[in-house]
Amino acid sequence: MEKNLAFVRIDDRLIHGQVVAAWLHAYSDVKHILVVDDKVSKDPFMQEMFALLVPTGISIKIEGIEDSIATVKAGLEKPTMIIAKVPQTIKSLVDGGMDISYLNIGGMGMSAGRKKFYKNISMSEDEKKILRELIDEGTHVDIQIIPAYNKVDLSTLI
To answer: DSSP per residue over 38-78, as a string?
Structure first.
């Protein structure tokens, strides 16, 4: 895992109450959130909305994939949580040279091409394939919606 990269999560809602409350409490050393999303990185309104949801003392930056790779390679100055919407984003980060040894899957809701996979997690066949590739490349992947829930090792399900 990259220096100061404390936690990496897939959550298609990106920043919301569970992330802010539960995960920042569970990873109390986190002082910065890096949202990786090409679309949101070009949407000033959404950036402003997400910034309002982050508590005082936690900084937030929203970048596209390429900029995020450069940011992490340049060195994270403080303990950071990365949040992305989809597995492909994480795969792109890893393919770009980022070392992600642990990945948490929290929110992957039903959408076009996705089928119910596990409890409230839905995935397409392509997403399953990408996650299997990440596991095969050495990333440990767990499903855990909130910290109070038990972790489920994804490699036992796909």
So the answer is: TTGGG-HHHHHHHHHHSPTT-EEEEE-HHHHHHHHHH--SS
Q: With 0.90 as the threshold, say if the pTM is over it.
A: yes
For 5-44, the pLDDT digits (tens) are 999 999 999 998 877 789 999 999 999 999 999 999 999 9
- Tokens 């109450």 -> residue: 17
The CATH fold assigned to 5-156 is: Fructose Permease (3.40.35)
Phi, psi of 134, deg, nearest 5: -60, -45
* CA–CA gap between residue 154 and residue 132 (Å, rounded): 9
**Structure token pair of residue 9:** 């999560």
Of 30, 84, 94, nearest to 59 (Cα)?
Answer: 30
At 44, list the tokens. 């000033």
